[in-house]
Each structure stands twice: as C-alpha cells, then as structure tokens.
Amino acid sequence: MIEFGIGVDLGGTNLRAAAIDRAGNLLDQPISVDTNYLGGREAVIGDIVNAVSRLQQQFASHRLAGVGIGVPGFIRLREGFITNSNNLPYLENFPVRDEIEKRLGTPIILENDANAAALGETWQGAGREVDSLVLLTLGTGIGGGIILNNQVLHGAVGMAGELGHLTIDPNGPPCGCGNNGCLEKIASATAVESMAYLMSLGDNLTSRDVYNLAAAGEIKAQRIFEQMGRALGIALANLINTFNFPLYLLSGGMLPAWDYFAPAMMAEASRRSFTFRNADTRIAQAQLGNLAGLYGAAYLPLQHLA
User: Fold this and answer.
1) 289: phi > 0 → left, psi -120 to 50 → alpha, else beta; which?
2) Rounded to the nearest 5°, which phi and psi values hold at 201?
3) Which pTM was predicted?
4) 3-class DSSP state of 91
5) Sheet order of strands, 14-21 included
6) pLDDT band for position 306 (cuts 50, 70, 90)
7) Are the CB atoms for 170 and 179 separated by under 8 Å?
8) Which residues does residue 4 pair with via DSSP β-bridges, in sequence order?
9) Number of H helices, E strands in the chain
C-alpha cells in the first residue's frame, strides 16, 4: 500500500495542499485557494480541513501518515499554538493543531513555513546529498530554516532560525522586531524597494521594477543589489562560521536577481569566513521554488508519525 503525507502551506494570500508519497512523488496537482482573510479564524481553519478532506477522499485507498501544516510565525511546538504571525493574527494563541486534529481525526504537525521549506529542500531539493543545511528565504521579509542531521533545529521553544533578524548593521534602519540593521531591512524585497525610493529611482517601484532597471544598465539599481549581496554575505559568513555545514541555500522571490547580488555576496562571505575559503562549503540556489514548503510539510508526518 502506498504511504503518503499531506502537506499544507498556509500563506498570507494562498492556502495550498498536496499529497506526496514516501518516495517524494506528488500524487496530484496541489490544491490552491485564496486565504480567506475576511472570514477570520473559522473560515481559514475550515478551508484547511476541506482541502485535507478532499485529498483524504481522493487517496482513500492509500495509507495516510498524517498532515503537516507550514504557517508563518513562531510555533509553540508543545502546545500546537501559533504566536507572532503578522499575516494571520486571528490564529495566534489558539489551539490550531488540536482543533484541526479533532476535526480531521488524523495526526497534525504544525511547523514554521521557512522550516518546512528547508526540510523540503533537504528531502527532495538542492539538499538531497547532505543531512545538514541552512536555508534563507528572500521575499517581502527574510525567513530561515536550519536542518541538522535531517531534522529541523527548533531551539528551546521553537524559535530557532529567525535568520532575517541577524544584525548586519548595528546602526542600520530600525526593524519591527525592536532591533536595528536586521538582515531583512537590507536584503529583502521590501528593503530593495525602500533603497530605490531613497536613491530617487522612482516612486512605488517594486523589487521587480528595480531588477528590470538593473538589467537595463541602471547603475543605482545595480548598486542596490550589490548592497543586498554584501549584507547576505555578512550573514552567510556568520552562519558558516557558526555551523560549519556543507550547504547554504537561498530561495524566494528575489532569486531572479541572483546575477546582480551573488558576486558581492560570495566575495563578502569569502572575505569574512576562513571556513568558506578553505572548506568544501557551498552557497547555492534552492531548487523546489514554491513547492518546497509543501514537500517539507508533507514529509513531517512521514518522518515523525509513520
């Protein structure tokens, strides 16, 4: 009998779910629906339950190991609560795991979305040849996941891997976390857009607009990506020096600009990390794109509950 897990990726705009077997095969195209902001907690939980139920019925002849759900925010693992989720505040401090488990009658594992993506890349993506890696997700903000011996590194209360809040410039711009000069204030899509405004490249430019300007030869836009690359290089050098893992991956919506930020990133990491210069350590692009979180979430029950 085929054994499979169901992965759910709950984002700020979309809710996706997929059935994936133990060999890493998608059993069908993922289900995707808009995240129902206006409906609040009950609507979102109902949508998760409905999506999983559809997959349970579709593959009723197979053995379901359980359901993994990747969500933005901190996860209190023991209680199954979400805390500090800017995108889904109505789910905070509510027993999400237990409520969904009660409705579906199957084991549920909650996980931070970036952790799930890192696990997915380890299982079926760019990290298949290693058992330990770090993933940085470059989007509106910057998230991170740390995999040690094929397991998510959670820390004492589940808050390890908040790599977007590594300090890059102690005197840099203030961050909503209370710090100054966080990585995501210098190297995220939002940071690129802010720098474009400050450099008078135009009003209301998106990071894609800034990328297009850089590709067209605009020097100021290219310098923005060089600054982004230097910030990432500093962060990666610190991570390499700390963990001595073989692989450090970058994913997310900023990857199309790789050719514009990667040279500065690699140079900075090499300058600041003896280990990077002298060991078989790679910095590379992730491979699974927006499927990484689904793969990682589906793998959670296959890894822990089967």
Assistant:
1) left
2) -80, -15
3) 0.94
4) helix
5) 31-34, 14-21, 3-10, 63-71, 108-112
6) low
7) no
8) 21, 64
9) 10, 12
